[in-house]
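Contributing new records

If you add data, match the layout below exactly. Sequence lines come first and carry their own label; structure lines follow with theirs. Keep one chain per record. Anything else will be rejected by the validation script.
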Amino acid sequence: MLTDAQKTACMGFYPFEGDDGDYRILEDKVVVGRKDHPCGCGEVARAGDHHRVIKGLFDGDFVTLRWCEGCCVAMTTYYEELVAGEVTKLDARWDKRNPS
């Protein structure tokens, strides 16, 4: 489970930075999942764990996106790792799912 500080830091990460799409975020929050959901990293956002959920309009379509607790934790240190010139934990999670 995420601490309150981790939830706040997770919410401080903007997942669409650099995207060119047309989107409007309607809801963005950290929840405790009631059931399992897929995460884009290839893991499962498990029931009973924290998930970050964003609902919105993306290029005209209503979309719900979820990130698992592991990705939420990785979001908390993303900017510090980026400034330090390190491969971020979040990028590493996504690269294992989406190899170049």
